[in-house]
C-alpha cells in the first residue's frame, strides 16, 4: 500500500459518532479523512428519537442544527402490554428526526470543519498496525490514528478482535416508517411489547415510526411480536418491515487496540435500558477525537487509546448502571410487576423523565433509595404470587 494520501486521523463511518469525531478533530486543525461505504444522504434504521441528553451533545459538538430536522414531541404514554402506566411530559421535548436528513446534516458539518469526504467507497484492505486503508476506488489513506465508528457490525472491530459484538448481548430491532399524516401529539412506549426491550410509536413530521426491539436471546419470535404491534397501530401489511441489530449491554472495557479507537455502536455504546445510542455515539466520537488531538500534540499517538479509555470511564459506568436497572425492570418473576407498580409511582416517573432528558444520570439515581422503593412496591406482588407458608 504505497503512495498513501497522509492524514492526521482517519475516521471510518460517518454516522453520528464518526461525524462527531471528524468535526471535533477538524475544528482543532487536524487533517481528517472521513470514510463511509454509503454516499450521503443515506438511511439508517432508527427510531430517530433525539433525547434532551443527545440535544446537549449535538449543541456542544455540532452547534445549532436547522429547526426543520425535528418534530418536537413533549409527551409520552408509557404502557405495559397495552395497559396504561403513565402519561409523561418533558420540559425538554424529544426531537423526532429522520436519520437520512439528520445524518446528512452532521456529515455536512464534518466536511465544513475540513474533513475530506471519502463517502460512497468501501474499504478494500486494512493494515491497522501501520495505519493504512485502501478503498474500493484504489485510493490508499494513511494516518497515525484511526477511529472506527462504523456501527454495530464494525469491520474495524472485527479486524481487531474477530467479531464486532458479544452475540449474547445483542438486540434486534424491527421497524417501519408509515408515511401518512400523523396527528399524534405523544410518543407511545410499551415496556411489555418485547422481552428485555420494548415497542415504540414515534410521531414524525410526515408519518409515524413503529418498532419493537429487545435482546435477541429473549425474543425468538420478534417478527410475530412486530406483526401484533403493527395490527395494534393499524399499519399491518402496509409497509415492509426492516431489521437492524444494536449493542445492548456489552462493551469492551478498552475501546480499541494500539492506534485504533472505537466509538458509538462499534464500541457497544447503547443504553441497554432505553436503547438510546445517538447521544453516546456523539459523545464518544468527540471524546475519541479529543484523545487523538491530545496524543498528537504530545507527539505520542500511542497514548491516544489510554486518554480515550480514561475519558470514556464515566460513560461505561452509566451503561453498567443502566444494565443493572434493566435487570430490576425485566427479570422474572418481577417482570411486569416492576414496570406497572414502580413506574406508576410519581417519584420514579419524575426521575425517569429527568433521566431521558439528560438532566439526571443513572449515577444520580441513588441506588439504595431506588432499590428500597423497588422492594416496597414489588414485594407485595411477590407475596401474592408466592404466598408465605
Ligand atoms: C431500529 C433501531 C431504532 C433505534 N432508535 C433509536 C432512537 O430512537 N434514539 C437513539 O438515540 N438511538 C436509537 N437507536 C440506536 C442508534 O441508531 C445508534 O446507536 C446510532 O446510530 C449509533 O451511531 P454510530 O455513528 O455509532 O453508528 P451508525 O449510525 O450505525 O453509523 C455507522 C456508519 O458507518 C458506515 N459503515 C458501516 N460499515 C462500514 C464500512 N465497512 N466501511 C465504511 N463505512 C461503514 C455506515 O454506512 C454508517 O454511516 C436505534 C437503533 C435501531 C437499530
Automatic annotation (TrEMBL):
GO MF annotations, alphabetized: oxidoreductase activity, acting on the CH-CH group of donors, NAD or NADP as acceptor
Domain of life: Bacteria
InterPro entries tied to this protein: FAD/NAD-bd_sf (IPR036188), Geranylgeranyl_Rdtase_fam (IPR011777), Geranylgeranyl_reductase (IPR050407)
Protein's UniProt name: Geranylgeranyl reductase family
Organism of this sequence: Gemmobacter megaterium
Amino acid at each position: 500500500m504505497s503512495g498513501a494520501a497522509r492524514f492526521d486521523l482517519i475516521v471510518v463511518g460517518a454516522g453520528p459518532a464518526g461525524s462527531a469525531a471528524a468535526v471535533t478533530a477538524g475544528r482543532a486543525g487536524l487533517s481528517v479523512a472521513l470514510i463511509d461505504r454509503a454516499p450521503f444522504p443515506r438511511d439508517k434504521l432508527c427510531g430517530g428519537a433525539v433525547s434532551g441528553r443527545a440535544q446537549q451533545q449535538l449543541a456542544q459538538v455540532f452547534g445549532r442544527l436547522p429547526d426543520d430536522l425535528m418534530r418536537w414531541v413533549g409527551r409520552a404514554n408509557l404502557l405495559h402490554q397495552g395497559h396504561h402506566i403513565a402519561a409523561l411530559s418533558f420540559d425538554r421535548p424529544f426531537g423526532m428526526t429522520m436519520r437520512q436528513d439528520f445524518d446528512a446534516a452532521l456529515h455536512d458539518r464534518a466536511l465544513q470543519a475540513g474533513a475530506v469526504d471519502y463517502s460512497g467507497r468501501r474499504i478494500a484492505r486494512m493494515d491497522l498496525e501501520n495505519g493504512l486503508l485502501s478503498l474500493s476506488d484504489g485510493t490508499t489513506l494513511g494516518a497515525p490514528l484511526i477511529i472506527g465508528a462504523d456501527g454495530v457490525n464494525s469491520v474495524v472491530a472485527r479486524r481487531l478482535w474477530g467479531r464486532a459484538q458479544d452475540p449474547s448481548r445483542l438486540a434486534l430491532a424491527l421497524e417501519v416508517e408509515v408515511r401518512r399524516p400523523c396527528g399524534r401529539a405523544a410518543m407511545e412506549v410499551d415496556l411489555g411489547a418485547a422481552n428485555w426491550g420494548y415497542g415504540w410509536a414515534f410521531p414524525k413530521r410526515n408519518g409515524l415510526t413503529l418498532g419493537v426491539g429487545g435482546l435477541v436471546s429473549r425474543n425468538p419470535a420478534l417478527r410475530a411480536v412486530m406483526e401484533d404491534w403493527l395490527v395494534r397501530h393499524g399499519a399491518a401489511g402496509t409497509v415492509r418491515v426492516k431489521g437492524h441489530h444494536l449493542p445492548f449491554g456489552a462493551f469492551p472495557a478498552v475501546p480499541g487496540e494500539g492506534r485504533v479507537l472505537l466509538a458509538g455502536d462499534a464500541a457497544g455504546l447503547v443504553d441497554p435500558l432505553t436503547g438510546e445510542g445517538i447521544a453516546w455515539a456523539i459523545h464518544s466520537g468527540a471524546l475519541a477525537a479529543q484523545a487523538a488531538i491530545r496524543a498528537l500534540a504530545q507527539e505520542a499517538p500511542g497514548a491516544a487509546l489510554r486518554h480515550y479509555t480514561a475519558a470514556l470511564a464515566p460513560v461505561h459506568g452509566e451503561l453498567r448502571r443502566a444494565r443493572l436497572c434493566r435487570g430490576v425492570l425485566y427479570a422474572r418473576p418481577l417482570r411486569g410487576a416492576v414496570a406497572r407498580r414502580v413506574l406508576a409511582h410519581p417519584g420514579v416517573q419524575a426521575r425517569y423523565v429527568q433521566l431521558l432528558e439528560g438532566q439526571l444520570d443513572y449515577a444520580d439515581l441513588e441506588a439504595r433509595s431506588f432499590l428500597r422503593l423497588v422492594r416496597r412496591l414489588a414485594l407485595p406482588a411477590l407475596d401474592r404470587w408466592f404466598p408465605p407458608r
